Amino acid sequence: MLIIGIAGGSGSGKTTVVNKIAANCGSNSVTIIPQDAYYKDKGDLPDEEKRAINFDHPSSIEFPLLVKHLDMLKKGRPIEMPIYSYITCARSKETVTVYPTEVVIVEGILILSNPQLRKRLDIKVFVDADGDDRLMRIIRRDIHERNRTYEQALSHYADWVKPMHEQFIEPTKRYADIIVPQGGENEKAIGIISSHLNRYMQKAKEER
């Protein structure tokens, strides 16, 4: 099993990169583990406190569970991945059963910030994008997916996203084996990564 970590700032195009790689490699051979599924359950908080949750701080992620799940997949065991809702700030009672595959992609803004998680990553990728482009994507996402107004999205970016990016996310670029500029629009970089994974999977198939 090859475990790939794909990090980068909020709105950098990580999800697009991940989806294109998975499509190039065959969805049956690739498992995607989103960091967002491992946000800590805060469903019991009042609405006012929920709106103040800092989703861009490493402490918001239950890293021990994510690391445990990766170790289980590496050993060939299925996991029960949480389902998290940004609307309720809580985990669902249901989970998603995830089975081991040849390639596992862990995707999220903070995955390179945790030393124990980094040790599990065979290849570390950082998706880079211009700050203005990221801001536009963040505003659109917050309005359409997280029930925020334009003013709330802009305020959240200024108060939390930007300072956390500068403190916890941008510095993790130094851990990356590969940096992908221009996000999901960088077809050459995506093609190179996909080709490497396909070669790995073909070799693994031949050795079985």
From TrEMBL:
Transmembrane segments: none annotated. It catalyses: cytidine + ATP = CMP + ADP + H(+); uridine + ATP = UMP + ADP + H(+). Keywords: ATP-binding, Cytoplasm, Kinase, Nucleotide-binding, Transferase. It is found in: Cytoplasm. GO terms for molecular function: ATP binding; uridine kinase activity. Pathway: Pyrimidine metabolism; CTP biosynthesis via salvage pathway; CTP from cytidine: step 1/3; Pyrimidine metabolism; UMP biosynthesis via salvage pathway; UMP from uridine: step 1/1. InterPro entries: P-loop_NTPase (IPR027417), PRK/URK (IPR006083), Uridine_kinase-like (IPR000764). The keyword Flavoprotein does not apply. Its EC number is 2.7.1.48. GO terms for cellular component: cytoplasm. Residues 3-187 form the Phosphoribulokinase/uridine kinase domain. Belongs to the uridine kinase family. NCBIfam families: PRK05480.1, udk. PANTHER family: URIDINE KINASE (PTHR10285). This is Uridine kinase.
